[in-house]
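User: Teach me something about this protein's shape.
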Amino acid sequence: NVVAGRTAASFMGRFVGTGGGDILMVTGSLAARDHMERVMGFRAVIQEQFGALNLLPATQSYDDAETLSTLVKDAMDHHNLRGVYAVGAGHRGLLDALQNGSVKPIVIAHELTDISQRGLRSGAIDLVIDQNPAAEVRAAVDLMRDLSDGRMISPATGSIPLNIFVRENI
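Assistant: First, the predicted structure itself:
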């Protein structure tokens, strides 16, 4: 998840460019370890490599579409919003907020769902990072089997590749 966040930040910084501006990070929950790890990785790369960008405090949508929509609309109304990093779910609310905005920020989201695919096709979402839930489950089962069988665990065991989706490859 830290790598996923770092990857998202690398793309965000390159897509937004050198002009500066505000970036909104919206999690499902700040208590969710995977979301916090993504935010940590994202924050580290933005601060290391893209100092002209201002990270707004990470917010929580509780994976609720209406809450996410409100958070994004508020940020668009009150900040020089150049990017949105949607760490959690609730993409329907994200698309709702973006269709009514006067300025279209760069949007990077997680998990390739029907709604995030629709966002990619329409141009509302610029990039989706998908960690392939089926591969995550297989890796977890393999790891448990290896532990149960007393096998040596490789450092690469459980590693899940990231899939990057843009409009052109969905």
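Now, about its shape. Helices lie at 2-16, 33-49, 65-78, 91-99, 114-122, 133-148. The longest helix spans residues 33-49. If you'd like, I can walk through any region in more detail.
User: That's plenty for now, thanks!
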